Amino acid sequence: MHSNVNELFENLWQNYLEVTPSAKRVHQLLGSSQQADIINDHIALRTFNLEKIGLEKLAAHFKAVGYEECGEYHFEAKKLYAKHFEHPDRNQPKVFISELLLEQCSEQLQQIVGELVAQIPDEAVTADNFLYSGTHWSVDHASYEKLLAESEYAAWMAAWGFRANHFTVSVNALENFETLEQVNQALKDGGFLLNTSGGEIKGSKEVLLEQSSTLADLITLQFSDGPATIPSCFYEFARRYEVAPGILYTGFVAASADKIFESTNAR
Question: Is the pTM of this model over 0.90?
Answer without folding.
Answer: yes
